[in-house]
Amino acid sequence: MSNSHLFLKSGFPRAPLQNGLGRYVCQLQRITLKFCKNNGSSRGMRDFIENHLVDFAKENPGIVVYVKPRRHRTPVLVGEYLNGEREWLNCRNNTKDEISKWIELLKTQNGCSSSLRLRKMWHTDVPSVQGPWTPFLLRSPDANSIEYPNIDASKPLDIPKTATDKLIELFKKQKLEAGDGAEDLLKQKRAE
Question: Where is the Ribosomal protein/NADH dehydrogenase domain (predicted)?
Answer without folding.
Answer: 37-110
